[in-house]
Amino acid sequence: MSQLTLGIETSCDETAVAVVEDGFQVRSSLIASQVARHEPFGGVVPEVAARAHVEALNPLMQESLDAAGIGFGDLSGVAVTVGPGLVGALLTGMAAAKAVALATGIDLIGVNHLEGHVWANFLEQAPPEPPYVALVVSGGHTMIVHIPQAHRHEVLGQTLDDAAGEAFDKVARMIGLGFPGGPALDRLARDGDPTAIRFPRAMQDSGDFSFSMSGLKTAVLRHVKRERAEGRDLNLADVAASFQEAVVDVQVKKTIEAATKLDVPTILLGGGVVANTRLRERMLAAGEGAGLLVRFPPLDLCTDNAAMIACVGAARLARGERSSFDIGADPQLRLSA
Ligand code: KG4
Ligand code: ZN
Asked: What is the DSSP letter of 83?
C-alpha cells in the first residue's frame, strides 16, 4: 500500500498544496501565487499574505486531491510548514493542516521550511546517501549546512546581512525589473557580460562560511547612479550579469570549500535562488572539477512548494515522529541539530 502525504506550505507569499506518494513521488503540486497582490507594494505585505492564504487554501486542497485522483480518506498523513516564515501566514496553513488531521484522523507533522528546500532534492530522483553539504539560498536565507545524517544539521555559516534572493530582488528593483526580480534578472543576465563590471566579492577569502551581500548591493547602486549622473548609457544586461557573477563566485567557492574541508562527497543545493541558471551551471562545473556530486531539485521545486514539505513530513512520519495539535508556528525556527 502506498503512503499518500498531503503537504501544506504558507510560510511567505505562495499558497502551496501537494500530494506526495511514498515520500518522493509527486502526485500533485499546486501553487497559488500572490505576486500580483504584493506587487503594488514592491514587497510582501504580511497581512495581505495571511488573508490571501485563507482564501486560497480550501479550494487549493481540493484541487490538489483532485489532481492526484484521491480523496481526503486516502491520505495517511499531513505535513505543514511551521517555520521559519511570517507568523500570520504560517498560522493559516497550520490551521488547515490541523483541521484535515482532526477531521480524518490522520497524523500531523510539522516541518521546517529550510529542511524542505534541502529535501526537494529527493523528489522524483533517487536520493544519494548522506552525508551532505547543503547550500540553502532563498529570499530569506543564505547558509551552508553540514548534514551528517538525515534530519541532523550543523549550520557552518550564513549571511551576516541580506539573503541572496533578497539581494537579487533589490538589485532587480534598482534596474527597473519589478518584483520579484530574481527570475527577471537571471533572464536579463544571459545577454550580458559577467566580466563587464568588477563588483566586490565580499568575504570570498574569509576562510569561513559566512556571507555578506550588503556591500555588493551598495556597489551596484553606486555604479548605476554614477553612470546615470555622467549621462552614460547603462548596459543593464552587463550590470545584471556582473552582479550575478559576484554572488555566484562566492557561493560556489564556499560550498566547494565546505565539502572539501569536511570530506563530504555530495552537495545539495536548495532554495529559490537555485533556480538561477548561472548558479546551477557554475556549481555543476565546480563539482565536476573537485570530484564532488552536485545535486539540485527540478526547476519548479526550487522555489517554494508543498511537495518538499510533504517529502520531509513523510520521512519524519516513517521514523515514528508526530506533532501534537498544540504545535505552534515558529517564525524564527532553526534547523535542528
Ligand atoms: O525559496 P523561495 O521561493 O522563497 C523563500 O523561502 O524565500 O525563494 C525566493 C527567492 C526570491 O528572492 C527570488 O527572487 C529568488 O528566490 N529567485 C531567483 C531565481 N528564481 C527565484 N534568484 C535568482 N535567479 C532565479 N532564477
Ligand atoms: Zn523558501
From this structure: E
Instruction: Return the biggest CA–CA distance within the chain.
Output: 69
**Cα(277) to centroid(ligand 1), Å:** 12
Q: Residue 34 contacts by C-beta under 8 Å, 6 or more apart in sequence?
A: 13, 14, 15, 44, 48, 49, 52, 56
DSSP label of 323:
-
Return averaged pLDDT per consecutive 10 residues of the chain, 337 residues in all: 94 97 98 92 91 98 98 98 98 98 98 98 94 98 98 98 96 91 97 98 96 97 96 96 98 98 98 98 98 97 98 98 98 96
Q: Residues lining ligand 2 (ion), CB within 5 A?
A: 138, 304
Entry field: residues in the chain: 337
Q: Is the CB of 77 under 6 A from ligand 1?
A: no
Angle between helices 236-262 and 164-174 (to 10 degrees): 170
What's the confidence (pLDDT) of residue 123? Answer: 98
Point out the ligand 1 atom lying closest to the alpha carbon of residue 304: 3
Q: Are residues 19 and 36 in contact, defined by beta-carbon separation less than 8 angstroms? A: no
Measured distance CA(190)–CA(192) in Å, rounded? 6
Q: Could you tell me the pTM of the whole model? A: 0.97
Indicate which ligand has the atom closest to the C-alpha of 166: 1
